[in-house]
Write a structure and sequence with these properties.
Structural class: mainly beta
Number of helices: 0
Oligomer: single chain
Distance between the termini: 40 Å
Number of strands: 11
């Protein structure tokens, strides 16, 4: 089993920035596609961003393109989400996830391991 632990959430004003980190246990981090998802109260879990095993392929949901950047450091077993120009509609619990296969998918059903999540609240 893979354990994922997120950090970096908090309260920020609209237009501000936050950087999330997710640290994975084990020796196989570099074999996983890593993704970030978010879930607001009463809403379905939605895809935010994902990154391939080597870090050379990145995808984003349309609403965060140009504002968020996903990256990874395989030597540190860590994936990051840099969030700039934050908006109140970005408010949600953010979760990192790992997929053991090689292709990137946007559906949370395609991911095998999940962190507990970290709350991001953007005030207006």
């Amino acid at each position: 089993q893979v354990q994922l632990v997120e950090s970096g959430g908090g309260l920020v004003q609209a237009g501000g920035s936050l950087r999330l980190s997710c640290v994975a246990s084990g020796r196989s981090f570099s074999t996983y596609i890593m993704g970030w998802f978010r879930q607001a109260p009463g809403s379905e879990r939605e895809f935010v961003a994902a990154i391939s095993r080597s870090g050379d392929n990145l995808i984003y949901t349309d609403s965060v393109k140009g504002r968020f950047t996903i990256s990874r450091d395989n030597a540190k077993n860590t994936v990051y989400l840099q969030m700039n120009s934050l908006k109140p509609e970005d408010t949600a619990v953010y979760l990192c996830a790992a997929r053991s296969k090689s292709l990137i998918f946007r559906s949370p059903r395609e991911y095998d391991y999940w962190g507990q999540g970290t709350q991001i609240t953007v005030s207006s």
